Every structure is written in structure tokens, then in C-alpha cells.
Amino acid sequence: MLNKIIDIVLTAGKILSEGYYSRLEIDFKGTIDLVTEYDRKIENYLLDELKRSFPESIFISEEFNENIDYN
After folding, report:
1. Residues forming beta bridges with residue 34, ordered by sequence position
2. Can you give the pTM of this predicted structure?
3. Whole-angstrom distance, CA of residue 66 vs CA of residue 48
4. How far is CA 46 from the centre of its chain?
5. What pLDDT does 65 receive?
6. Interval 13-32: pLDDT, tens
7. Using the 8-state DSSP alphabet, how is residue 35 labeled?
8. How far apart are alpha carbons 68 and 71 in whole angstroms?
9. Which is nearest to 6 in space by CA: 35, 49, 43?
């Protein structure tokens, strides 16, 4: 399980490095709460991979607000 998590996180790091020096599209979640396309891209990747690898687990994220059924 640990190796799977490490692989997922390392791939997320590669996604981050793709956008590091690129011109970022920035949105405002709130008055002073910024989010970039790479924030969303990485979070989406992490949620997809973690849900696929650990379907019995619950994940809470920062950028995406989903209705979560804890039952």
C-alpha cells in the first residue's frame, strides 16, 4: 500500500513540475483565495488515483467540494 501511495504522489509531483514555469490560469475561489489550473489538475489526479486504489476510503479535498456520503 505504501508503495502505491508513493507512486501516486510522485506522479502528482510530475504534474506540478509541468506547470511550474508556465503561465498559469488563476481563478478566485474567494476574495483573496486563489486557485490555479494546476491546483485543480493535481487534486483531480490525486482523488481519482486514491479512490481507485483505496475505494473503501474517504477523501476530503481543498479545491473540489463534493457532497460526501459517509454511510
Report:
1. 28
2. 0.66
3. 13
4. 5
5. 61
6. 998 888 777 777 777 777 77
7. E
8. 9
9. 49
* CB contact at 8 A, 47 and 59: yes
Cα–Cα dist 37/48, whole Å = 16
User: What type of residue sits at position 8?
Assistant: I
Residue for grid cell 489526479: 45
For residue 57, report the phi and psi dihedrals to the nearest 5 degrees.
-95, 160
Q: Residue type at 56?
A: E
Question: Any idea which residue has 489538475 for its cell?
Answer: 41
Sign of the Cα torsion 22, 36, 56, 58 reads positive
Q: Per the structure block, which three cell numbers stand in for 11?
A: 506522479
Give the side-chain half-sphere CA count within 13 A for 47: 15
Ramachandran region, residue 3 (left: φ > 0; alpha: ψ -120 to 50; beta: rest): alpha
Q: What is the DSSP letter of 34?
A: E
